[in-house]
Amino acid sequence: MKTFLRTIPLFIVAMVIVYALPVFNSATQTSTNKNQQKTNEQVAKKTKTGMVQKTVPVDGLADYIGISIDLFTQQFGEPVRKDETAYDFQWWIYNQKDKDYLQVGVKDGKIVTIFALGTNLDVAPFKIGMTIDSIYSTATLYPNFEVEYNEDTYELELSESDMNNHPLIAFDNGTFAILILDQFTNKVIGIRYLDVSILMYLNLYEVVSKTPTPSVSQDNLDWNAVNQGNQQEAFEIINVLRRRNKVPILEMNPDLNALASQIFTTYTKPLEEATTSNTLSEKKIGEFLSKNQSDVKELQPIYFNQTTDVTWAIGSLFSIESQRELLMSKQFNSIGMGYQKHEALLLLNSDL
After folding, report:
1. Is 323 helix (H, G, I), strand (E, B) or coil?
2. CA torsion, ordered 308, 309, 311, 315, to nearest 10 deg
3. Is residue 5 predicted with pLDDT exceeding 50?
4. For 304-326, what is each residue's pLDDT tens digit?
């Protein structure tokens, strides 16, 4: 009897273990699953894509992005002029010599972007004139980028054309560079340095994430000043590249400037006054020249839109074989230009 009584507590303990252990295991497993799920979500959030770009050590002119313009002028001196832009910064133009041609973007006293065109400029680890093969040996080119700006993450995707003609490089200080290549020579003709704000405002590459793209208000701009700056910069950049290719420079033709402006005026009337669509096109330009110019065969128009950034626009023309051939042709010796906000019209002429 005593033996039986002693076994009762042991039996109760055993039953508690048998029935309570599965419940405890279930609760533990549920807690573990929740913790694992939370960890997985954190990892997934941290690595949204598996294609985060590696960075290149900052060097050369890239090191000036973000610094005071006063420190820059101590080394490079004062610019020859200052041009207004449509992106809330000023271009400071340094173009005393073709081999030193430089544009420095200044906002609130700091450098936010640089366009290096001269062959003597320090653009390490790259070099003006380097080949695409040399680029690949210097840095890895990525088709996808994750960019952090204003506490948002943007995913950029470069097209095949972007990769071949203006690939993007990320530096280890959070800034970027766009290598501008000549489609004919497959060599770097210029480099555009920019901070993340300018990269996003210019909207040069496709944003594949659903994050709204930031923009700069252009409502209160002095468009006359912006257009004049764009015109002069385009003229200078084209001639720097013509000299580099051993082609005689173009002369600015005031009559062709007026003609380009007249074409814009004709096709940008208010909708209620226009008999047809008021959107300019190469076809309409050709029709206008045929009706109004007896020497139309001597004129070659180049029209482009959707951008107010000249360095990108002219660089992009060098990625199109037909346009590149026109800009570098020895046949032409003068040029006229018309700029109207996001549109530009170049008129090349073979007779002064």
Report:
1. helix
2. -60
3. no
4. 887 779 999 999 999 999 999 99
Please enumerate in sequence order all residues whose Cβ is within 8 A of that of 284, keeping only pairs 6 or more positions apart, or say none: 267
Residue 100 has which token pair? 């030193």
The size of the chain, in residues, is 352
Q: Which amino acid is at 296?
A: V
**In the block, which residue shows the tokens 């996808």?**
144
Report the distance separating Cα 230 and Cα 224, nearest Å. 10
In the numeric block, which tokens belong to residue 7?
Answer: 């076994």
How does DSSP assign 62-126, residue by residue?
GGGTTSBHHHHHHHH---SEEEE-SSSSEEEEE-SSGGG-EEEEEETTEEEEEEE--TTS--TTS
Q: 282-292 and 254-267 are packed helices; what angle lies between their axes, rounded to 10 degrees?
A: 120
- Kindly report the pTM of this predicted structure: 0.82
Query: Please, which pLDDT band fits residue 297 given cuts at 50, 70 and 90?
Result: low
